[in-house]
């Protein structure tokens, strides 16, 4: 598994298109999220030149996972769309707290039958490690997420330090919650992270 990380300007255009197509396949086609998408690409107002991405690719070069990172010092998904998940607590706004969103890890090439959910091990665990490492490199000490309950099970099984920021709420028929994830140095992740230039396809 290969991991690419960078902002839009750092990534080859084909990588950016690939992650948007992958997100559409996972979140819209598979999970049925009602999102405003164009031409099979899932991108929203939080995908901009300052957004940091982590992309997992399998041995065939196909996208097998994605994650989006934003510092909480600027507008982000939880602060703008889902602040009610914090149940009255102030939304985080600190340079050492970043938001993790649009996390998905399904290797469609490896799962010829219809996969369930938006992540599967071991791709999800490796992607999360790579994401935590990318956040740590940029000064993050904590990640805050808007996640389905399945992410909580994944975090517990993999041994990550995480806890709920509040009880789940039902949104579009699905329970979601805000979750804190501790960012710690991961030497294993240091060995798998790749920081591509625009020529990395």
Give the tags.
single chain, 201 residues, alpha+beta, Aminopeptidase, nine-stranded mixed sheet, 26% strand, globular
**Helix/strand-derived class?**
alpha+beta
For this structure, the CATH topology is: Aminopeptidase
Low-confidence spans: pLDDT under 50, at least 5 residues?
Answer: none
Task: Report on the biggest sheet.
Answer: 9 strands, mixed
Radius of gyration: 16 Å
* Anisotropy-based shape: globular
| Percent of residues in helices | 25-40%
What is the number of beta strands? 9
Count the DSSP helices: 5
Determine the mean pLDDT: 84
- Named at the architecture level, the CATH assignment is 3-Layer(aba) Sandwich
For the record, what CATH class applies?
Alpha Beta
Beta fraction: 25-35%
- What distance lies between the first and last C-alpha atoms, to the nearest angstrom? 15 Å
- What pattern of helices and strands is seen along the backbone? EHEEHEHEHEEEHE
Total domain count: 1
**CATH-level-4 superfamily name:** Gcn5-related N-acetyltransferase (GNAT)
């Amino acid at each position: 598994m290969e991991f690419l990380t960078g902002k839009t300007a750092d990534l080859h255009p084909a990588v950016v298109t690939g992650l948007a197509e992958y997100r559409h396949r996972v979140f819209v086609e598979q999970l049925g999220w009602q999102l405003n998408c164009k031409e099979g690409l899932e991108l929203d107002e939080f995908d901009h030149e300052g957004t940091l991405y982590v992309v997992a690719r399998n041995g065939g070069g196909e996208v097998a996972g994605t994650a989006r990172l934003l510092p909480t010092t600027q507008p982000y998904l939880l602060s703008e769309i889902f602040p009610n998940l914090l149940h009255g607590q102030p939304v985080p706004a600190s340079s050492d707290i970043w938001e993790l969103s649009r996390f998905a890890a399904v290797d469609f090439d490896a799962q010829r039958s219809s996969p369930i959910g938006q992540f599967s091990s071991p791709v999800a665990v490796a992607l999360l490690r790579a994401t935590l490492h990318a956040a740590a490199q940029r000064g993050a000490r904590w990640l805050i997420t808007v996640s389905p309950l399945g992410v909580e099970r994944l975090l517990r099984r993999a041994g990550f330090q995480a806890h709920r920021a509040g009880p789940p709420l039902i949104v579009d028929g699905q329970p979601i919650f805000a979750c804190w994830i501790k960012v710690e140095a991961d030497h294993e992740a240091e060995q798998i992270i790749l920081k591509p230039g625009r020529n990395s396809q």
